[in-house]
Each structure stands twice: as structure tokens, then as C-alpha cells.
Design a protein that fits this description.
The chain is α/β, with parallel strands linked by helices. The chain is 56% helix and 10% strand. β2 (130-136) and β3 (141-146) form a beta hairpin.
Length: 212
């Protein structure tokens, strides 16, 4: 499967990040994760829905005929079999990506981003100017988290707009272009609101991290 960002694209983005950090007080981190969660808990729910639907169709399909013990057993057996098959199918990544609700994958990616933020101590920069952009390959989505000094200088809806730009670009197969656009927006905002000081130092790596 083609990587969401090629080596050339990553190098270009890393150069862009360095330029923004040289001109602003921001510390920008971009991380790419293959998937934010296993989503295994959704498989039984899908299986239950399919099994229930099959069972209901079996019952109503008998019209007004009395349902004897043998009929009940057959319907239950088929419904149970479909539950098992549907549950296993829902564990296949390609099918998962089609079955999972967007809200579930976005919430999982947001949780992964918050954990990364804490684990990497992004909130410990000198002036609280860290910005994390996390891209989920499986989710085909992105989350942007900003520390308080950066968050307060942005207008209402700014961060949602950046996430939307990334999400739409990723789903068009243009993750690099979308990320460059978001970095450009960040550079413009932070250059005006949080310009670099003489004593600024690079506190976080500019290299894009590809998590296994």
C-alpha cells in the first residue's frame, strides 16, 4: 500500500516546519500513525445487527404459518451463523474502513493524539507554543492539537477548519498538499501573533514521526 506521505513529501514538509519555527515561537510536530485503534469492539455489534436482521427476515418470511420448534431452531441457527460470519468480516481492515462511523474513527484518532501529546511532553515547551498534527492512515483523517499560547490567538473555528482541510485532502490522496496548506495557515497566524524571539530555541524535533 502506498504511504500516505512519500520520503520526498516528508522532507519537503520538514523543511516547511523548520522555516515556520524560525519565524515564529511555535513548535510544530507532525506524526503519522497507521491506525489509531483496533476497533475490534465494533465487529460484534455489526455481527449482531446482521444476525438480528437475518433472524427477523426468517420470522416474517414465514408469513402467517405457525412457527414450530423446528422452524425456530432453523432460524436461530442461521441467525447465529450470520452473526459469526459478519463479526469475522467486520475485522477485515478494508471492510472496517467502510463500516465504521466517521465519528468513531475521529474520536479514536483524537484520543491517540492526546496520548501522544502527553507521552512526548509537548505541553512542556517553554512558552506553551506546541502544535501537534496527527494523521491517521487507516482513518483517513487528522487531528490538530495546540497548546494554550497558540490556541488563544486563533479565531473561533480555526482548528476545525484546519482538520477539515487535512481530512478532505487525505481522502483525495493529497495529504502532502493539504498539510502544506495547513502549515501555511499556521505560519501566517503565528507570524503575526507569536513571532520568534531572539532567545527562541528548537525544543521539539522537526522530523515527521512515522509510528509503527
Amino acid at each position: 500500500m502506498r504511504k500516505i506521505l512519500s520520503d520526498v513529501e516528508r522532507a519537503s514538509l520538514e523543511t516547511r516546519i523548520a522555516k515556520i519555527e524560525n519565524a515564529t515561537a511555535a513548535e510544530i510536530v507532525v506524526a503519522v500513525v497507521p491506525r489509531a485503534g483496533s476497533y475490534a469492539k465494533w465487529a460484534p455489534l455489526f455481527g449482531l445487527a446482521v444476525g438480528s436482521a437475518v433472524g427477523a427476515m426468517g420470522l416474517f418470511g414465514r408469513k402467517m404459518d405457525p412457527v414450530n420448534a423446528s422452524g425456530w431452531t432453523q432460524i436461530a441457527a442461521v441467525a447465529l451463523a450470520m452473526f459469526g460470519i459478519a463479526t469475522l468480516l467486520a475485522l477485515i481492515p478494508r471492510l472496517q474502513s467502510m463500516l465504521l462511523p466517521a465519528s468513531a474513527t475521529h474520536d479514536a484518532l483524537k484520543l491517540a493524539a492526546r496520548r501522544y501529546y502527553v507521552d512526548r511532553k509537548l505541553g512542556a515547551t517553554q512558552d506553551h507554543t506546541a502544535v501537534l498534527i496527527m494523521i491517521g492512515e487507516f482513518e483517513r483523517d487528522a487531528v490538530v492539537l495546540a497548546d494554550r499560547a497558540v490556541e488563544t490567538v486563533a479565531s473561533d473555528g480555526f482548528w476545525q477548519k484546519q482538520e477539515r482541510t487535512l481530512r478532505e485532502g487525505i481522502r483525495r490522496g493529497e495529504a502532502s498538499t493539504a498539510t502544506h496548506k495547513v502549515l501555511s495557515e499556521l505560519g501566517g497566524l503565528l507570524g503575526a501573533k507569536l513571532p520568534a524571539r531572539r532567545d527562541d530555541r528548537n525544543e521539539l524535533p522537526n522530523k515527521i514521526e512515522l509510528k509503527p
